[in-house]
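User: Show me sequence and structure for the first protein, then do the same for the second.

Assistant: Starting with the first protein.
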Amino acid sequence: MDKPFHIATAKDILEGKVTDIYFQRALEVLNSRNIRRSVKAEFVVKRFPMNYPWAVLTGLDEALALLGNLPVKVKAMPEGSIFYPNEPVMVIEGLYQDFAIHETAVLGFLCQASGIATKAARVRVAAGDKPVIHFGARRMHPAITPMIDRNAFIGGCDGVATLAGAEELGLRASGTMPHSMILLFGDTIEAAKAFDQVIDPLVRRTVLVDTFHDEKFESISVAEALGKKLYAVRLDTPGSRRGDFLAICREVRWELDTRGFKHVKILVSGGVNEFSIRKLNEVVDSYGVGTSISSAPVLDFAMDIVEIDGRPVSKRGKLSGEKQVFLNRRNGERYTDLSSKKARRGFTPLLVPKLDRGRLLSAQPKHGDVRRFVLNQLKDLKLEIESEFERS
């Protein structure tokens, strides 16, 4: 076996080997007829998955890293921007032949990263101020673990569980203990004591309480064994045994409080999403969210030519002409119009120059700065988001 893992290398991506074949064939035909025309192409999502009203733009850093090797110009919204259906988020200008074979990769960067960040942002809003850790790396190909963790963090997760993802973000990996360790000990209390004796004291003592016995009784036993050292109990109860999961969490909280363990927090993981979190917030203190973030539906970006040699033109169902999104930062009002139109009073353009024929026009923002940008926008959207959850 020549390649142990079925992945493309950075070299493969830069050389256009991950392109759809019809782009390569299109170039052969165009070049054979000496058709070389300058175009402007927009990246737009017509409809969001599950009727989301808004989304978070990410993956732009990788798209610019790829396009930065080409003689093209790029305008885009800032990484982490909240955007809406039918708004262009990026525009490429240049000879079609110079970037055609990279359409597949650029769309891939934007579609998956933005989908993950959007789901993480929805989870963040649902959890409020309660900590959220991304646990979902195991649901996707390990080669893209850092990408998934990055976008989960940018979207609003407070931490990530993998070593590679944490290293990429400059964080300390977050996690508790696996069921396998407890099973090998044969006893939850013995496993918890051993964890406490071996692991760095800076790591908070969070113990799984659903391996052998009822969550309530394991929580009580662990709390009595570790006392003040116990930071939290984690309920990862499988769906087949949950029943009324909120009622189980309430019971655990009651029993811990009754015995003087009010300091012990409840962490829930396993199959949680923005909707279940809203219900569990009554008693749960923090969340480990996996599949719903890492396997988030992609945003269905399309790249469409809207100008050729300076003339507005597009395929059926698309609006021709380069467009711009304008925002009034005081009241949040926004609209889309031709980029040639002057902005209305009080409005500023969101798509700004990012790349000019191989020259990056501004430094890429740090991961933490993008995350703060997302969180600040979510605060402004609080009423709109609350309304959406209430309707659901």
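Switching to the second protein now.
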Amino acid sequence: MPDFRFTDPAGKVLELKALRGTPVLLNLWATWCAPCVTEMPMLDQLAGRMKGRLRVVTVSQDMEGEKAVAPFFAARTFAHLEPWLDPESELAFHFGGANLPMSVLYDASGREVWRLAGDFDWTSTEATRLIDLAMPDPG
């Protein structure tokens, strides 16, 4: 898992490396990206459904940062997503100038399991199957 820090509009800090120990679905998105906007409610549902088993982290790549993201979140009722900001798009550059949306799944040890560029139906059985690849074996 890359070693990056993000903030939310209130100044709260998130360090990705501190999330090791739990599988993480990292999603790069932007308010101007129509497929990203479509995915957000599904990602919120996924975060609620997988609470305690998978951390869903959505990181905005909007260059306007809080100015774009705060109103976007205020206009919606996400119960589980947090508005993490990356106005310099450092994460997108880390992933080679990523097309948005981009999602990367990490297992609990921080190893990348898979990467998906483009929109995806996070409520589908295919999503569940792909996420299960990072889940610890219960047996």
